[in-house]
Amino acid sequence: MLADKSISEIARAFRDKEFSSEDLVKECLANIEKYNPQINAFITKIDKDIVLSEARQKDRQGFAGKSLLFGIPYVLKDSYVTRGIMTTAASNVLKNYLPQYDATVYCKLKETGAILLGKMNMDAWGHGGSSENTDFSPVHNPWDLTRVAGGSSGGPAAAIAARMCLFAIGEDTGGSIRNPAAWCNITGLKVSYGRVSRYGCIAYASSFDTVGPMAKSAEDCAIILETIAGHDMYDGTSSKNEVPRYSQKLATPIKNVTVGMPEEFFQKGLDREIKKAIETAVEKLQKLGVKSKVISLPMIEYGIPVYYLIGPSETSSNLARYDGIRYGETRSNFTGETMRRIMIGTYALSAGYYDAYYKKAQKARTLFIREYEKALNECDVILMPVNPTPPTKIGELINDPVQNLLADIYTVSQNPVGVPSLAIPCGFTKSGLPIGMQLVGKMFAEEKLLQVGYAYQQMNSWHNQKPKLTP
Ligand code: GLN
């Protein structure tokens, strides 16, 4: 399949006229037609004739001197506004919303000539970790259709795994890129806060939200990141730090890199097969000269309470504009999960409770920042699980709200701190379900994470495995 290839292989093939952008787009469209009815990854599909004519136009223009993403089909999580293209955040509240403007990340990809195939299913507003909290029916995991794809960027992850597109832009507030990446056997990067502009990304929790790439490999993520990263005058929190040419430095040797394994993360609650797969991955990395050591992140047990106080507080403020008074939609269009979050957040911010909850959580957040700083002075990269379990059965998490929150234990502490994290495939359970691990680095150390991920993927073919789907 053409879509099994890496972005740089495809760009080379386009240039050498081995196959065309039209061929690749046709293949993706065929896969969407065959597999999407079972997976439900898409909320909006761009009209076939439009995408095919875009591909033909790229083929006519030629590929010499163009970006590696020129003519490559991709998808956006439906949390990015796209002018004139329906944008829902997977909520009935926005089911008729046609934005007046484009998100910066979409503008940048349009400029490089990547071809948008659709807007993807997700947990509404980013609220969830299983893509079941959607008003457009759950996303099914391509590796086992009775299970969830993870969330909240479940649609994008499932679409890449099923070769319906080459890459996607997800959004990660507390794991939403990493969690579905791990459960669908793809690679996903949660960037440092401010690395990529959030302009036009429908806000969940503004001080946690990050915009990042999802693809098959660390190499593909590097190519995408160097296109979408950078300062944006429309997002005051976007960083002015220079954007490295991530893809040029991937092959930097990683010997002498020290990987820290937080002891708290490998104890009770972690599935045995996941633990084993990560330990095996560390042994592999050691063969490349990586040193590993045990570190400690004792604050981690407060990760869930801190995240689930600040996140809902910010979302209650961000979603207040949809209270039904301003735009006429009824607030009963929110799902139970989202209403719960709005209520928790409003409560935590209200007079009398602010000091006890919100302010305390913000103080704990400062302690988290210090703790990660300390840990990342003892090692270059922290390695940890993404999910405590393999993908759950459809219905399991959505019907158990507390378990639903606890499942985020490994991914929610990085966003309050702001540090980047790369999720990569590292094996399968005996029953054939994907396992992922994440590499966390210092602020703006995406380059290092991608190098370690790339080196690991040179020695393994986990990330090239794909699900066996039948139409
Ligand atoms: N599962 C987490 C939550 O529900 C993370 C979501 C996200 O990153 N958007 O808040």
TrEMBL record:
Q: What InterPro entries does this protein's entry cite?
A: Amidase, Amidase_CS, Amidase_dom, AS_sf, GatA
Nucleotide-binding listed as a keyword:
yes
Q: Name one GO biological process term.
A: translation
Keyword Ion transport among UniProt keywords? no
Q: Where is the Amidase domain?
A: 23-450
Task: Kindly give the PROSITE patterns that the UniProt entry links to this protein.
Answer: AMIDASES (PS00571)
For this UniProt record, give its keywords in alphabetical order, as a comma-separated list: ATP-binding, Ligase, Nucleotide-binding, Protein biosynthesis
E.C. numbers: 6.3.5.7
Q: Which parts form a coiled-coil structure per UniProt?
A: none
Which transformation does this protein catalyse, written as a reaction? L-glutamyl-tRNA(Gln) + L-glutamine + ATP + H2O = L-glutaminyl-tRNA(Gln) + L-glutamate + ADP + phosphate + H(+)
Cellular component aspect of the GO annotation = glutamyl-tRNA(Gln) amidotransferase complex
Which sites are catalytic?
77 (charge relay system), 152 (charge relay system), 176 (acyl-ester intermediate)
GO terms of molecular function = ATP binding; glutaminyl-tRNA synthase (glutamine-hydrolyzing) activity
Family note: Belongs to the amidase family. GatA subfamily.
The record's subunit annotation is: Heterotrimer of A, B and C subunits.
Entry function: Allows the formation of correctly charged Gln-tRNA(Gln) through the transamidation of misacylated Glu-tRNA(Gln) in organisms which lack glutaminyl-tRNA synthetase. The reaction takes place in the presence of glutamine and ATP through an activated gamma-phospho-Glu-tRNA(Gln).
HAMAP family found in the cross-reference section: GatA
Q: What is this protein called?
A: Glutamyl-tRNA(Gln) amidotransferase subunit A
The taxonomic lineage of its organism, from the top, reads:
Bacteria, Candidatus Gottesmaniibacteriota
